[in-house]
Amino acid sequence: MSASAEMPYFIKPSLNLDAEAKRAAYEQAQMAIDANLEGETDRILKMATINSVLKTYLPYYYWAGFYVVKNGRLSVGPYQGTLGCLHIEFSRGVCGKAAREQKTQIVDDVHALDQGSAHIACDPNSASEIVVPVFNPQGELIAVYDVDSTQHSSFDEIDQGYLEKILEKHFRLSALE
Ligand code: SME
What we know:
Blueprint: H1 19-37, H2 43-57, E1 63-70, E2 73-80, E3 87-88, H3 93-101, E4 105-107, E5 128-135, E6 141-149, H4 157-172
Antiparallel strand pairs: 1-2, 1-6, 2-3, 4-5, 5-6
The chain binds methionine sulfoxide.
């Protein structure tokens, strides 16, 4: 699969936020997610809803979506953005590292990483990213949540804090089908 640098008409370049605006956007997104997922247990429905709300509120979310653990590798789940890679081995990319280490990864400049091994470029417009591991109530890794921006250094500990909290609340601390 070859990735084109052309940005489709329905996707806009990312806009970074300062810390205050970022916190305000996450607070609003969190409230919308909690209100919409009240009582829901279906994990695909939760992934699709969380992803849609976050991408709507955060203007630097260019590609955002889940890679779910399936048959010993990561396979693409609910996402928004340009065409994502379908499968990612645990040994490759930022997503693979987050899955292996079960720890959030933040990369300020993905082009500085070794391409094909440390980073997989599904879309060359991506410049920075965050990948957060997702666990079920048994503490097992079920997915990673991957967000890419076309700007450098879009993600920091504010993103990490909110994303870990949202994903923990709706997957690790809630009933799942
Ligand atoms: N950034 C990822 C690949 C997935 S795409 O960005 C959608 C990685 O290197 O793990």
